Amino acid sequence: MNDRTVHAVDADHAIRLCSVSRRYGSGDSAVTALDEVSLAFPRGTFTAVMGPSGSGKSSLLQCAAGLDRPTSGAVVVGGTDLTRLSERRLTLLRRERVGFVFQAFNLLPSLTAAQNVALPLRLAGRRPSRARVREALAQVGLADRARHRPAELSGGQQQRVALARALITRPEILFGDEPTGALDTRTGREVLALLRAMVDDAGQTVVMVTHDPVAASYADRVVFLVDGRVNGELTAAGADAIATHMTHLETAPC
Ligand SMILES: Nc1ncnc2c1ncn2[C@@H]1O[C@H](COP(=O)(O)OP(=O)(O)OP(=O)(O)O)[C@@H](O)[C@H]1O
What we know:
By secondary structure, the chain is of the alpha/beta class. The protein has a single domain (3-251), classed as P-loop containing nucleotide triphosphate hydrolases (Rossmann fold, 3-Layer(aba) Sandwich). The chain contains nine helices and ten strands. It has helices at residues 3-12, 57-64, 87-97, 113-123, 130-139, 155-167, 185-202, 213-216, 239-251; strands at residues 13-24, 31-42, 46-50, 72-77, 80-81, 98-102, 173-177, 205-209, 221-226, 229-235. The strands form two sheets. The protein has a six-stranded mixed β-sheet with strand order 6-7-8-3-9-10, sandwiched between helices. A four-stranded antiparallel β-sheet has the order 2-1-4-5. Helix 4 packs across helix 5, helix 4 (113-123) runs parallel beside helix 6 and helix 6 packs parallel to helix 7 (185-202). The longest helix is centred in the C-terminal third of the chain and has 18 residues, at 185-202. The chain starts with a helix and ends with a helix. The structure holds adenosine-5'-triphosphate. Adenosine-5'-triphosphate (ATP) is lined by residues 24-25, 31, 33, 51, 53-59. It comes from Streptomyces ambofaciens. Residues 15-252 form the ABC transporter domain.
Protein backbone atom coordinates (compact mmCIF):
# COMPACT_ATOMS: atom_id res chain seq x y z
CA MET A 1 0.00 0.00 0.00
CA ASN A 2 1.34 3.48 -0.81
CA ASP A 3 0.73 6.50 1.45
CA ARG A 4 -2.32 7.68 -0.47
CA THR A 5 -3.98 4.25 -0.24
CA VAL A 6 -3.22 4.09 3.49
CA HIS A 7 -4.95 7.49 4.01
CA ALA A 8 -7.97 6.39 1.98
CA VAL A 9 -8.23 3.17 4.01
CA ASP A 10 -8.01 5.10 7.29
CA ALA A 11 -10.68 7.56 6.16
CA ASP A 12 -13.10 4.64 5.73
CA HIS A 13 -12.18 2.78 8.91
CA ALA A 14 -12.50 3.95 12.49
CA ILE A 15 -9.93 1.35 13.47
CA ARG A 16 -7.66 -1.24 11.86
CA LEU A 17 -5.72 -4.08 13.46
CA CYS A 18 -2.74 -5.23 11.39
CA SER A 19 -1.21 -8.62 12.31
CA VAL A 20 -1.86 -8.05 16.00
CA SER A 21 -0.43 -10.68 18.36
CA ARG A 22 -0.65 -10.71 22.14
CA ARG A 23 1.35 -13.22 24.10
CA TYR A 24 1.29 -13.56 27.86
CA GLY A 25 4.15 -15.03 29.89
CA SER A 26 7.20 -16.76 28.49
CA GLY A 27 8.78 -20.18 28.12
CA ASP A 28 6.61 -23.23 28.79
CA SER A 29 3.82 -21.17 30.32
CA ALA A 30 3.54 -18.72 27.37
CA VAL A 31 0.00 -18.23 26.03
CA THR A 32 -0.77 -16.74 22.61
CA ALA A 33 -4.09 -14.96 23.19
CA LEU A 34 -4.07 -13.24 19.76
CA ASP A 35 -2.24 -14.69 16.80
CA GLU A 36 -1.62 -12.26 13.90
CA VAL A 37 -5.15 -10.86 13.84
CA SER A 38 -5.94 -8.43 11.01
CA LEU A 39 -9.35 -6.75 11.12
CA ALA A 40 -10.84 -3.45 10.02
CA PHE A 41 -13.92 -1.78 11.48
CA PRO A 42 -15.58 0.51 8.91
CA ARG A 43 -16.95 3.83 10.17
CA GLY A 44 -20.64 3.85 11.05
CA THR A 45 -20.91 0.09 11.43
CA PHE A 46 -21.76 -2.23 14.33
CA THR A 47 -19.53 -5.31 14.77
CA ALA A 48 -19.99 -8.11 17.30
CA VAL A 49 -17.03 -10.28 18.33
CA MET A 50 -17.84 -13.84 19.41
CA GLY A 51 -15.93 -17.02 20.12
CA PRO A 52 -15.53 -19.80 22.67
CA SER A 53 -14.21 -19.02 26.14
CA GLY A 54 -10.48 -18.22 26.00
CA SER A 55 -10.54 -17.49 22.24
CA GLY A 56 -9.09 -14.00 22.74
CA LYS A 57 -12.13 -11.71 22.63
CA SER A 58 -11.21 -9.61 25.67
CA SER A 59 -7.56 -9.47 24.58
CA LEU A 60 -8.71 -8.19 21.17
CA LEU A 61 -10.88 -5.49 22.73
CA GLN A 62 -8.16 -4.42 25.19
CA CYS A 63 -5.54 -4.11 22.42
CA ALA A 64 -7.94 -2.40 20.00
CA ALA A 65 -9.00 0.12 22.65
CA GLY A 66 -5.45 0.95 23.71
CA LEU A 67 -5.97 -0.48 27.20
CA ASP A 68 -3.26 -3.05 26.53
CA ARG A 69 -0.31 -3.13 24.14
CA PRO A 70 0.03 -5.91 21.55
CA THR A 71 3.25 -7.95 21.59
CA SER A 72 3.52 -7.22 17.86
CA GLY A 73 1.45 -5.66 15.09
CA ALA A 74 -0.24 -2.28 14.70
CA VAL A 75 -3.53 -0.77 15.88
CA VAL A 76 -4.48 2.24 13.76
CA VAL A 77 -7.16 4.64 15.05
CA GLY A 78 -7.96 7.53 12.69
CA GLY A 79 -4.52 7.28 11.08
CA THR A 80 -2.57 7.01 14.38
CA ASP A 81 -0.76 3.79 15.30
CA LEU A 82 -1.52 3.32 19.00
CA THR A 83 1.35 0.91 19.50
CA ARG A 84 3.88 3.68 18.81
CA LEU A 85 2.47 6.22 21.26
CA SER A 86 3.99 7.08 24.63
CA GLU A 87 1.84 6.24 27.69
CA ARG A 88 0.87 9.89 28.03
CA ARG A 89 -0.28 10.28 24.43
CA LEU A 90 -2.04 6.92 24.54
CA THR A 91 -3.99 8.03 27.63
CA LEU A 92 -5.01 11.25 25.88
CA LEU A 93 -6.09 9.44 22.72
CA ARG A 94 -8.07 6.88 24.75
CA ARG A 95 -9.77 9.64 26.72
CA GLU A 96 -10.77 11.68 23.68
CA ARG A 97 -11.30 9.25 20.82
CA VAL A 98 -12.37 5.97 22.34
CA GLY A 99 -15.47 5.15 24.44
CA PHE A 100 -16.09 2.08 26.59
CA VAL A 101 -19.01 0.33 28.20
CA PHE A 102 -18.50 -2.76 30.31
CA GLN A 103 -20.76 -5.33 31.89
CA ALA A 104 -20.40 -3.48 35.21
CA PHE A 105 -21.72 0.05 34.83
CA ASN A 106 -18.83 1.58 36.84
CA LEU A 107 -20.76 4.71 37.79
CA LEU A 108 -19.63 6.75 40.79
CA PRO A 109 -22.40 6.29 43.39
CA SER A 110 -22.04 9.72 45.00
CA LEU A 111 -22.43 11.61 41.70
CA THR A 112 -25.70 12.34 39.89
CA ALA A 113 -26.33 10.95 36.40
CA ALA A 114 -25.36 14.32 34.89
CA GLN A 115 -22.13 14.49 36.96
CA ASN A 116 -21.20 10.94 35.95
CA VAL A 117 -21.76 11.80 32.28
CA ALA A 118 -19.66 14.96 32.59
CA LEU A 119 -16.76 13.12 34.25
CA PRO A 120 -14.67 12.21 31.14
CA LEU A 121 -14.61 15.85 30.02
CA ARG A 122 -13.74 17.04 33.53
CA LEU A 123 -10.91 14.49 33.69
CA ALA A 124 -9.66 15.94 30.42
CA GLY A 125 -9.59 19.37 32.10
CA ARG A 126 -12.57 20.68 30.18
CA ARG A 127 -15.71 22.24 31.59
CA PRO A 128 -18.67 20.49 29.98
CA SER A 129 -21.60 22.75 29.17
CA ARG A 130 -24.95 21.81 30.70
CA ALA A 131 -26.42 21.67 27.22
CA ARG A 132 -23.89 19.07 26.13
CA VAL A 133 -24.55 16.87 29.18
CA ARG A 134 -28.30 17.26 28.69
CA GLU A 135 -27.93 16.33 25.02
CA ALA A 136 -25.96 13.17 25.90
CA LEU A 137 -28.58 12.11 28.46
CA ALA A 138 -31.39 12.87 25.99
CA GLN A 139 -29.65 10.66 23.41
CA VAL A 140 -30.09 7.69 25.75
CA GLY A 141 -33.64 8.68 26.77
CA LEU A 142 -32.76 9.91 30.26
CA ALA A 143 -33.21 13.67 30.00
CA ASP A 144 -35.54 13.60 33.01
CA ARG A 145 -33.11 11.67 35.27
CA ALA A 146 -30.15 14.06 35.23
CA ARG A 147 -30.25 14.69 39.00
CA HIS A 148 -30.75 11.07 40.06
CA ARG A 149 -27.94 9.09 41.64
CA PRO A 150 -27.12 5.57 40.35
CA ALA A 151 -28.90 3.89 43.31
CA GLU A 152 -32.11 5.67 42.24
CA LEU A 153 -31.93 4.23 38.71
CA SER A 154 -32.69 0.76 37.33
CA GLY A 155 -29.88 -1.41 35.90
CA GLY A 156 -30.89 -0.54 32.34
CA GLN A 157 -30.97 3.17 33.17
CA GLN A 158 -27.53 2.93 34.82
CA GLN A 159 -26.12 1.29 31.70
CA ARG A 160 -27.67 4.05 29.61
CA VAL A 161 -25.94 6.65 31.82
CA ALA A 162 -22.69 4.71 31.21
CA LEU A 163 -23.41 4.92 27.47
CA ALA A 164 -24.02 8.67 27.64
CA ARG A 165 -20.74 9.01 29.59
CA ALA A 166 -18.92 7.02 26.90
CA LEU A 167 -20.38 9.20 24.15
CA ILE A 168 -19.90 12.65 25.71
CA THR A 169 -16.43 12.97 24.13
CA ARG A 170 -17.92 12.03 20.73
CA PRO A 171 -15.47 9.14 20.33
CA GLU A 172 -14.44 7.71 16.97
CA ILE A 173 -15.32 4.29 18.25
CA LEU A 174 -17.34 2.79 21.09
CA PHE A 175 -16.25 -0.55 22.57
CA GLY A 176 -18.58 -2.73 24.59
CA ASP A 177 -17.45 -5.76 26.61
CA GLU A 178 -20.65 -7.72 27.31
CA PRO A 179 -22.55 -4.43 27.83
CA THR A 180 -25.85 -6.27 28.36
CA GLY A 181 -24.37 -9.09 30.46
CA ALA A 182 -25.75 -7.76 33.75
CA LEU A 183 -29.20 -6.82 32.42
CA ASP A 184 -32.42 -8.80 32.15
CA THR A 185 -33.51 -9.80 28.64
CA ARG A 186 -35.93 -6.95 28.01
CA THR A 187 -33.65 -4.21 29.38
CA GLY A 188 -30.70 -5.70 27.51
CA ARG A 189 -32.67 -5.47 24.26
CA GLU A 190 -33.41 -1.79 24.93
CA VAL A 191 -29.70 -1.04 25.34
CA LEU A 192 -28.92 -2.99 22.15
CA ALA A 193 -31.60 -1.07 20.25
CA LEU A 194 -30.00 2.13 21.51
CA LEU A 195 -26.56 1.04 20.26
CA ARG A 196 -28.12 0.15 16.91
CA ALA A 197 -29.79 3.58 16.70
CA MET A 198 -26.47 5.30 17.50
CA VAL A 199 -24.93 3.57 14.50
CA ASP A 200 -27.90 4.19 12.18
CA ASP A 201 -28.77 7.74 13.22
CA ALA A 202 -25.46 9.21 14.44
CA GLY A 203 -22.97 7.23 12.34
CA GLN A 204 -21.24 5.92 15.49
CA THR A 205 -18.86 2.95 15.09
CA VAL A 206 -19.52 0.20 17.65
CA VAL A 207 -17.52 -2.96 18.44
CA MET A 208 -19.04 -5.28 21.04
CA VAL A 209 -17.87 -8.56 22.58
CA THR A 210 -20.77 -10.82 23.48
CA HIS A 211 -21.65 -14.45 24.20
CA ASP A 212 -25.30 -13.88 23.30
CA PRO A 213 -26.37 -14.66 19.69
CA VAL A 214 -29.43 -12.41 20.05
CA ALA A 215 -27.23 -9.48 21.12
CA ALA A 216 -24.87 -10.22 18.20
CA SER A 217 -27.80 -10.19 15.77
CA TYR A 218 -28.14 -6.41 16.36
CA ALA A 219 -24.73 -5.99 14.67
CA ASP A 220 -24.06 -5.61 10.95
CA ARG A 221 -21.28 -8.17 11.14
CA VAL A 222 -20.23 -10.89 13.55
CA VAL A 223 -16.53 -11.78 13.67
CA PHE A 224 -15.67 -15.17 15.20
CA LEU A 225 -12.43 -15.88 17.05
CA VAL A 226 -11.00 -19.33 17.77
CA ASP A 227 -7.65 -19.84 19.51
CA GLY A 228 -6.68 -16.21 18.99
CA ARG A 229 -7.39 -16.19 15.26
CA VAL A 230 -10.25 -14.89 13.14
CA ASN A 231 -12.31 -17.90 12.14
CA GLY A 232 -14.94 -16.56 9.75
CA GLU A 233 -17.61 -13.91 9.93
CA LEU A 234 -21.33 -13.52 9.24
CA THR A 235 -23.01 -10.44 7.80
CA ALA A 236 -26.55 -9.32 8.66
CA ALA A 237 -27.18 -12.67 10.33
CA GLY A 238 -30.10 -13.62 12.57
CA ALA A 239 -29.70 -15.05 16.07
CA ASP A 240 -30.39 -18.63 14.91
CA ALA A 241 -27.67 -18.58 12.24
CA ILE A 242 -25.21 -17.04 14.73
CA ALA A 243 -26.06 -19.65 17.40
CA THR A 244 -25.61 -22.47 14.88
CA HIS A 245 -22.21 -21.10 13.85
CA MET A 246 -21.12 -20.81 17.50
CA THR A 247 -22.22 -24.38 18.28
CA HIS A 248 -20.21 -25.57 15.29
CA LEU A 249 -17.10 -23.69 16.50
CA GLU A 250 -17.45 -25.02 20.05
CA THR A 251 -17.90 -28.64 19.00
CA ALA A 252 -15.55 -28.77 16.00
CA PRO A 253 -12.52 -31.03 16.59
CA CYS A 254 -9.20 -29.18 16.94
N1 LIG B 1 -3.10 -11.55 31.92
C1 LIG B 1 -3.04 -12.78 31.39
N2 LIG B 1 -2.00 -13.60 31.69
C2 LIG B 1 -1.91 -14.83 31.15
N3 LIG B 1 -2.80 -15.32 30.27
C3 LIG B 1 -3.85 -14.58 29.94
C4 LIG B 1 -4.03 -13.26 30.48
N4 LIG B 1 -5.18 -12.73 29.96
C5 LIG B 1 -5.68 -13.68 29.14
N5 LIG B 1 -4.90 -14.77 29.12
C6 LIG B 1 -5.11 -16.00 28.34
O1 LIG B 1 -5.26 -15.61 26.98
C7 LIG B 1 -6.27 -16.39 26.35
C8 LIG B 1 -7.38 -15.48 25.81
O2 LIG B 1 -8.03 -14.85 26.91
P1 LIG B 1 -9.22 -13.79 26.71
O3 LIG B 1 -9.63 -13.33 28.07
O4 LIG B 1 -8.82 -12.77 25.72
O5 LIG B 1 -10.36 -14.74 26.08
P2 LIG B 1 -11.94 -14.50 25.96
O6 LIG B 1 -12.32 -15.04 24.63
O7 LIG B 1 -12.27 -13.09 26.27
O8 LIG B 1 -12.48 -15.47 27.11
P3 LIG B 1 -13.88 -15.43 27.93
O9 LIG B 1 -14.98 -15.58 26.92
O10 LIG B 1 -13.77 -16.64 28.81
O11 LIG B 1 -13.92 -14.14 28.69
C9 LIG B 1 -6.78 -17.38 27.40
O12 LIG B 1 -6.09 -18.59 27.23
C10 LIG B 1 -6.39 -16.72 28.71
O13 LIG B 1 -6.17 -17.68 29.71
